[in-house]
């Protein structure tokens, strides 16, 4: 199942400048999602991180990976409108920078869910290069998404 950015905005509450997923290229709801972030030099964060040596900030890469997991979790109709809040991040590692022109492919696997709490493992690759990986703990809470 492929989701365009307008479909993603129907699922996630994030909006510019914090929506960091451009497309979902594969999705099995409540199991896994694979998403794409096209890193362009026009992203505001590249202007100051770092001048002359632009790289995507690790915290934003971690957020993009979490958003891919959020799509897998929030796709089912009964979960729409919930917000996945971080309760923890474990084993986060940054292995290779994401630079302007890169296409980051992120996979998030739902490891477990018990009531409103759960865990997702995610990885980000550019081509064959592993850029980042980590485990996210979350709580699904009621929220009001804006469109």
UniProtKB/TrEMBL annotation:
It comes from the Bacteria. It is an enzyme of class 4 (lyase). Keywords: Cytoplasm, Lipid A biosynthesis, Lipid biosynthesis, Lipid metabolism, Lyase. It is found in: Cytoplasm. It catalyses: a (3R)-hydroxyacyl-[ACP] = a (2E)-enoyl-[ACP] + H2O. GO terms for cellular component: cytoplasm; membrane. One of its GO terms (biological process) is fatty acid biosynthetic process. Pfam families: FabA (PF07977). Its EC number is 4.2.1.59. NCBIfam families: fabZ, PRK00006.1. Involved in unsaturated fatty acids biosynthesis. Catalyzes the dehydration of short chain beta-hydroxyacyl-ACPs and long chain saturated and unsaturated beta-hydroxyacyl-ACPs. This is 3-hydroxyacyl-[acyl-carrier-protein] dehydratase FabZ. It comes from Megasphaera lornae.
């Amino acid at each position: 199942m492929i989701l365009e950015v307008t479909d993603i905005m129907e699922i996630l509450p994030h909006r510019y400048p914090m929506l960091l997923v451009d497309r979902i290229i594969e999705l099995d709801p409540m199991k896994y999602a694979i998403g794409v972030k096209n890193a362009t030099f026009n992203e505001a964060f590249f202007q100051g991180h770092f001048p002359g040596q632009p790289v995507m900030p690790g915290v934003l890469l971690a957020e993009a990976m979490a958003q891919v997991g959020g799509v897998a979790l929030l796709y089912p109709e009964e979960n729409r409108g919930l917000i996945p809040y971080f309760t923890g991040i474990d084993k986060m590692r940054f292995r290779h920078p994401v630079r302007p022109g890169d296409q980051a492919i992120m996979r998030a696997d739902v490891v477990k869910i018990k009531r409103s709490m759960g865990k997702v493992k995610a990885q980000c690759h550019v081509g064959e290069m592993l850029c980042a990986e980590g485990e996210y703990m979350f709580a699904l809470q009621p929220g009001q998404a804006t469109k």
